Every structure is written in structure tokens, then in C-alpha cells.
Amino acid sequence: MSDTLLNVKSVETYYGNIRALAGVDVEVKRGEIVCMIGANGAGKSTLMMTICGSPQAKTGSVTFDGQDITRMPTHEIARLRVAQSPEGRRIFPRMTVFENLQMGASLDNLKYFDEDVEKIFTLFPRLKERQAQRGGTLSGGEQQMLSIGRALMARPKLLLLDEPSLGLAPLIVKGIFEAIKKLNEQEGLTVFLVEQNAFAALKLSHRGYVMVNGKVTMSGSGKELLANPEVRAAYLEGGHH
């Protein structure tokens, strides 16, 4: 079994005639947290969506756990236990917290349902307190916890996080990133996240990539990129310390 879980090779993705990804290479090994940082509009979210099959890559390939998923429909990719917490959270606002978690549970793992819910309530105690509340009445931070919790209910081999810190207060971000770290350390969960908050993402990640205009321009360990003067000038100046 290869230790590479996700391999994105020379991927180009288009929206109509506009090239959003220009030959992207990314590798995520089992048990790693890897981040992709970059400015707004760099193509980070497009990469996430391409991994999930919508839109599909025009050229290049996406391989997950040894299987080519480049042309697979999104629901089949999800069945391989790739779970995504999308940008903007996208929870079900009219359903309760508990019902949202039920929606995330994979059908073939219902025997673990109670155990999994308990695990999410331990990870995010706020959700336990609010389990009977409608998703739409939660704060932004609680909705983000719910979005991640819902993705975890699928027992993913790979968790994709799209801008988990967007619009959240620093203290909430810290709590969410600590929860991700804990999952990785205690359960070996593999995580790939795209994030504008470069400082938080690089501190959390084993390795990182920098994306500019649909191309990967740099990669290295989280520590290397944090120390890199170009990265510091572009993404870390302005008080993210």
C-alpha cells in the first residue's frame, strides 16, 4: 500500500474558457495535515472542488488511495470516504444540530452512529449543548464546528477543509484548529485544507503549498514556509502572529 493517499498531477480546471488551475501538483500522504495557502481567488477552492469531481479536471489526474477518481461523479468519490467541509459551511439551517450530524453519517456505518456522535460531542462540546437547536440559529463558529462534525460522521479517510477559519474570531479559529490537530494525532486522520489564514494553517500543517493564480509556486514543510521571507511578506505580515 502506497503511503500517498491523494495525488493531484498536472491538473488543469476550467470554468468555460477561463483556466482556474494551471497544471497543479499536490501530494498528501496518509496521516499528514497538508495545507494550501494563497490569496483570495488564487484557485484554492477550485482545487478542492476538482478533487471532489465538480468541476472535473480537464487535463491531468486525481488519484485517491491508488484509484483514479478524475472522472468519477462526486457521490462516488464521497463513497470512497473523502469528506468535505465546504467553504461557507453549507449546513442544513432548518435541521437541528443532531439531524445535521445524521445527514453526514455514512449509511454503511450506522452501527457506529452513537459512538461517532459522542466523539463529535467530545471534540466540540458546544454542539452537544446545542444538539436540539436548528443549525441556522448557531453562531458562525458553531456552524463551522457542525460542518466539520458532519464531515467526520462519514468516517473519512481524507478530510477536506475549505477555508475553515473564514469570518471567525481568532479564539474560535484556535479551538477548531486544535480539534483538527487532535484528530490527526490521536486517530491518524489525513487532512487537506485550503486556507487564507496562512499563519494558522502553516502552524498546524506538516507540509504546505502556496498557490498563486492557479499555479503552485512553492512547497515545503509548515516550518519552512513560515520562515520563508517571500511567504512572510505576502501572507504573514499584518499581525497574524
Mean pLDDT, as a whole number?
A: 92
| Overall form | globular
Number of helices: 10
Strand content: 25-35%
- Got a strand count? 10
Q: Helical proportion?
A: 25-40%
**Rg for CA atoms:** 17 Å
Q: Biggest sheet: strands, sense, closure?
A: 6 strands, mixed
Low-confidence segments: none
CATH C-level label of one domain: Alpha Beta
The CATH architecture of one domain can be named as 3-Layer(aba) Sandwich
The class by helix and strand makeup works out as alpha/beta
CATH topology of one domain: Rossmann fold
**SSE pattern:** EEEHEEHEHHHHEHEHEEHH
How is the largest sheet built, in terms of strand order?
A: 6-7-8-3-9-10
Terminal-residue CA separation: 39 Å
The fourth-level CATH homologous superfamily of one domain is P-loop containing nucleotide triphosphate hydrolases
InterPro entries: AAA+_ATPase, ABC_branched_ATPase_LivF/BraG, ABC_transporter-like_ATP-bd, ABC_transporter-like_CS, BCAA_Transport_ATP-bd_LivF, P-loop_NTPase
GO biological process, one term: L-amino acid transport
Family: Belongs to the ABC transporter superfamily.
Organism: Rhizobium giardinii
